[in-house]
Specification:
With 191 residues, this protein is mainly alpha-helical. The protein is built from 7 helices and no strands. Helix 1 crosses helix 3 and helix 6 crosses helix 7.
Length: 191
């Protein structure tokens, strides 16, 4: 069945899956050696189109991130072939190793993103806004400090403390997920 003839529920499933996992696919593409944001955007667009056309071939929506990363792998290969004269492109064997490693890490990266999102939600609103301004919107800390009438050093310190709290929260969330029964290794009891 052509993609345009899919029932609305399948349209919705595709959009939800792509929205939910686009960051994982982008991370996979960057991990495969594509660093320029405009190149990543170009590849993600092609991946999205191909995934849309073949979405009816996917057995389980839960497999979408890995499936889309396989599509991304082929699109990265095509991208590299088109730009084969660029001296900064990795040789095929190195790329192949990166691609295999990236596919294995897809699930882990998705888990990390979920943990980070959970930890971001736990931050006070002003801390969450600071992190989003700097990391999502790319606003320089100096610019934010100037707008807020604060010293840039104070804002850098605040951001550092927030990052440390997020790191600890993510590590704890990972530990909690890997030891749901609470019987995991406790560093305080190990000697």
């Amino acid at each position: 069945m052509p993609a345009d003839d899919l029932p609305p529920a399948d349209h919705e499933s595709f959009v939800r899956a792509l929205s939910l996992h686009e960051r994982v696919i982008r991370a996979y593409i960057r991990g495969a050696g594509i660093w320029r944001p405009e190149d990543v955007d170009e590849i993600i667009q092609e991946v999205s189109l191909i995934a849309w056309k073949k979405f009816d071939q996917l057995d389980k929506v839960e497999e979408f991130p890995r499936w889309a990363c396989v599509i991304a792998r082929y699109q990265v290969l095509e991208f590299r072939r088109q730009r084969a004269r660029d001296r900064l492109i990795l040789n095929d064997r190195v790329f192949e190793l990166l691609g295999e490693e990236g596919l294995e890490e897809t699930t882990h990266n998705e888990l990390l993103l979920r943990c980070l999102e959970h930890c971001l939600e736990k931050l006070p609103a002003n801390g969450r806004e600071l992190v989003q301004s700097v990391y999502e919107h790319g606003i320089a800390v100096d610019e934010l400090a100037q707008k807020a009438g604060q010293q840039a050093n104070a804002l850098y310190q605040k951001l550092w403390r927030i990052r440390q709290a997020l790191r600890k929260c993510v590590e704890q969330a990972q530990a909690d997920r890997s030891n749901p029964d609470g019987h995991g290794a406790n560093p305080a009891t190990q000697a």
